[in-house]
Amino acid sequence: MNSKIALVCGAGGFIGSHLVKKLKKEGFWVRGVDLKYPEFSKSGADDFIIGDLRDPELCKKILDRQFDEVYQLAADMGGAGYIFTGEHDADVMHNSATINLNMLHFGEKAKIKKIFYSSSACIYPEYNQMDPDNPKCSEESAYPAAPDSEYGWEKLFSERLYMSYHRNYGIEVRVARFHNIFGPEGTWEGGKEKAPAALCRKIAYTKDGGEIEIWGDGKQTRSFLYIDECLEGIRRLMNSTTFYGPVNIGSEEMVSINYLAEIIMGIGNKRITLKHIEGPLGVRGRNSDNKLIKEKLQWAPSLPLKEGLEKTYVWISEQVAKRSNT
Q1: Alpha helix locations (H) across 175-297?
Q2: What is the full DSSP assignment across 91-125?
Q3: Any idea which residues carry the catalytic annotation?
Q4: DSSP reduced 3-state for 47
Q5: What is the CA 149 to chain-centroid distance, rounded?
Q6: Which of 28, 140, 276, 317: disulfide with 204, CB 3.0–4.6 Å?
Q7: Domain containing residue 152
Q8: CATH code of the domain covering residue 257
Q9: Are residues 114 and 196 in the same domain?
Q10: pLDDT tens across 114-168, in order?
Q11: CATH number of 114's domain
């Protein structure tokens, strides 16, 4: 039986709530912290504190014991409709940076042993992601820095912040750059959802022969990683004794947004027309480069994109059905 104790910041969010359940299965005692409880299922945490990690007093309060592992996933974030409009830049930078500054400052005083930080593929330079067919997202390509959003700049700053605390205070730090994590119990409406969830929702709501809107020409490319694969990558990195990151945790199965819609239509057994409209897009191409994680952690995702989308579409269709019946 594992007697370790863990703290998960952002435990009410999509990845955080799934991570809590995984840690519990591994035998951890888990404390979760967030502004809210998980939206779609009961938290698996032994102890869940509702609070704002921007508040120094809360950070002191939650670090009241010797945690073996801390996972810092809390952030002000969302999909393209939230990040790329420019309307939330100040809040995104202030809120997320404050959380990270607090957690490291008070974590060091509380003598935490090890902390995981969830960075993002959004830190990669826009100039390496102009060609949708040949984006460059290897870890060392992060510099010279030129992220395409303030969200990406804050993530890059915080990566450096964590590494500074590792150098100066000896905290064991692990940093992963997530590439579009998706799956059941993720945000699927309201403007903060990402492309897989948004397309699953639109297609679930639309009758066969109907029409949905896609931002841009739909030829922009991305890769998407199923939640269970992401959790395996996190745990492998956290358990490594020799490798700290930063490292990509993502899939190398790159698809265009148009093709992503085609896959989901097939899953839903619908033929739907795509109407391309103006909208926030982000970079033209992005794909996880997994050479480093394969070399250092002997890991690569194994679940094909379609299988993850099938599970996600079923879950979102159920949410749509519930909404339609109320």
Answers
A1: 195-205, 227-239, 257-268, 291-297
A2: HHHHHHHHHHHHHHHHHHHTT-SEEEEEEEGGGS-
A3: 151
A4: strand
A5: 16
A6: 317
A7: 5-181+225-249
A8: 3.90.25.10
A9: no
A10: 999 999 999 999 999 999 999 999 999 999 999 989 999 999 999 999 999 999 9
A11: 3.40.50.720
